[in-house]
Amino acid sequence: MTAKIAAIPMILTALVIFVGGTAWTVVYSFTNSKLLPRANFVGLDQYERLWNTNRWIVSIENLLIYGICMLVLSFIIGFVLAALMDQKIRFENTFRTIILYPFALSFIVTGLIWQWLLNPDFGVQNVVRGLGWVSFEFDPLNNSSIVIYGVLIAGLWQGTGLVMVLMLAGLRGIDQEIWKAARVDGIPMWKTYLYIVVPMLRPVFITSIVIIASGIVRVYDLVVAQTAGGPGISSEVPAKYVYDYMFQGQNLGQGFAASTMMLLAVAIVIIPWAYLEFGSRNRG
């Protein structure tokens, strides 16, 4: 009873601030609120306008490209790094700290670092040309067709370390007898990982997907720091669209509609995860 009473403030906070704020946002997304919220309901007009706006379509396309590449590459790189770390290499703590260090930085700092590294005047392109390859070109942030991949590089640099640590924790939790049995049976290492280890890491994979996917949907400061959405609107993302309409365009209704769509995207990720984790546990 004491524990339940102590939890009341947090429960009220969650209900009022998170659930209440979310419901308030969804309700006012059906209004034509401008500078200030007003209960002048216009039905689905804001959503029709949203999906007829080229800037929003571009932001969704960028989010899909960034999200798919981020999920696939961060999982592959993170798992490979974790598998290498799991071999009890020398200076493991040093390498693990170095790889995880970018995650300790804010997205603003990461964006500014990679804005400098990808700058053609004094970044990677300038260094390679200084080594003698004068025809080398690497300027993704100023190329509207590939600018989102420049943002992706920065995202991978920061987020892969977290995936590696999660995977490494999962690998270290596997019973050593399984590895010994696989070696005795003559099972190749790659088959051991593919058919035995990976299925056992399912909870770690699911948790990593939820963490990364929620970060992908909310990506904002990395884009602002690197490109500010440019060139033009070629690196626009939904979170930036919401911010610009709510605080710069003074169009709360449109911002609420866009943020509701982001909420829906997050729910698509969270609800299946919750069902798999808690539903299967209850059935068990």
From TrEMBL:
Membrane topology: Multi-pass membrane protein
Record's GO cellular component terms: plasma membrane
Alphabetical keyword list: Cell membrane, Membrane, Transmembrane, Transmembrane helix, Transport
Source organism superkingdom: Bacteria
Subcellular location: Cell membrane
Ranges that cross the membrane: 7-30, 63-85, 97-117, 146-171, 192-217, 256-276
Protein name, entry field: Sugar ABC transporter permease
Species whose genome carries this gene: Psychromarinibacter sediminicola
